[in-house]
Specification:
The chain is of the alpha/beta class. It has a single domain, classed as Rossmann fold. Helices cover 27% and strands 23% of the residues. It is built from eight helices and eleven strands. Strand 1, helix 1 and strand 2 form a beta-alpha-beta unit. Helix 3 packs across helix 5. The longest helix has 14 residues. The chain is globular. The N and C termini lie close together (11 Å).
Length: 260
């Protein structure tokens, strides 16, 4: 079966592009790291790919707001390409800074480019958070978490602006439509807004959301940092046959894209 092509977008300040490349390649995709300028000058076209990945990092130094400059660049110069990409049913994933970008383009939560309805603000702790967290995978229509619903997964976060925030009515709409994909959970396995299990103070313990189709997903934790068993801090205590929790997300994307 032909490998789906993944466009991993990078620009100044992005620093998780190679890890994201490795994760998708391990899941069976054909990957290419594409600088945003290559898309702007048409040397690369989004239409040639089946998946777009916006990796973590600090795009353009997170000037103004995290992900803001790259989001403006995408909606100003690549709006038509992005619109066509999502309308043809292809996949988009944004991780950490990539989630911030997706929120500020308007692709999340409603695929409405230029309309910002959600954001990721400064952590309520007031400082950069880097730790392993547990997430509840909600029962949704999200392509990236098929077969994972109702489970608790471990992954790592590393951000200073991961605090999911929106208006009460927008939050209720997202909840009503079942667009919350991941929630931070405490030791009891229940969603929590309490620190440090919820490391940034996100409303309703939200760690990741998708659009109404389930094909566009953004999450603050880094699944690409747990695609090998030995990446887990307690890997010696894990079962020999364990599938790294992050890898399952990339495999779901690749398997879906192979059917397109």
């Amino acid at each position: 079966m032909k490998k789906p092509r993944v466009c991993i977008i990078r620009t100044d300040g992005i620093n998780c592009d190679e890890e994201t490349f490795y994760a998708f390649a391990k899941a069976g995709a054909q990957c290419r790291i594409v600088h945003v300028n290559q898309l702007r000058n048409r040397k690369e076209k989004l239409a040639d790919y089946q998946i777009i990945a916006l990796p973590g990092g600090f795009s353009y130094g997170d000037d103004i707001h995290s992900g803001k400059v790259l989001a403006v660049e995408l909606t100003s110069f690549l709006k038509d390409q992005l619109q066509e990409f999502v309308e043809t049913g292809k996949l988009v994933i944004g991780i950490c800074n990539g989630f911030q970008v997706l929120a500020r383009t308007g692709l999340l939560p409603d695929r409405d480019l230029g309309e910002i309805k959600t954001t990721l603000i400064v952590n309520s702790s007031g400082h950069f958070e880097c730790r392993w967290v547990n997430l509840l995978v909600e029962r949704t229509h999200c392509i990236f978490t098929r077969g994972m619903e109702g489970t608790i997964v471990s992954t790592q976060i590393a951000n200073a602006e991961g605090n999911f925030y929106t208006r009460p009515d927008t939050l209720q709409e997202i909840e009503n439509r079942g667009q919350v994909v991941f929630r931070y959970v405490g030791a009891d396995g229940n969603p929590t807004v309490l620190y440090p299990a919820n490391p940034n103070g996100s409303l309703n313990a939200v760690a990741g959301i998708c659009d109404s189709t389930g094909r566009i997903m953004g999450m603050m934790p880094h699944p690409e940092r747990y695609v090998e068993k030995t990446q887990h801090p307690n890997w010696r205590r894990l079962p020999d046959d364990i599938v790294p929790h992050g890898l399952a997300i990339f495999k779901n994307a690749v398997e879906y894209a192979q059917q397109m």
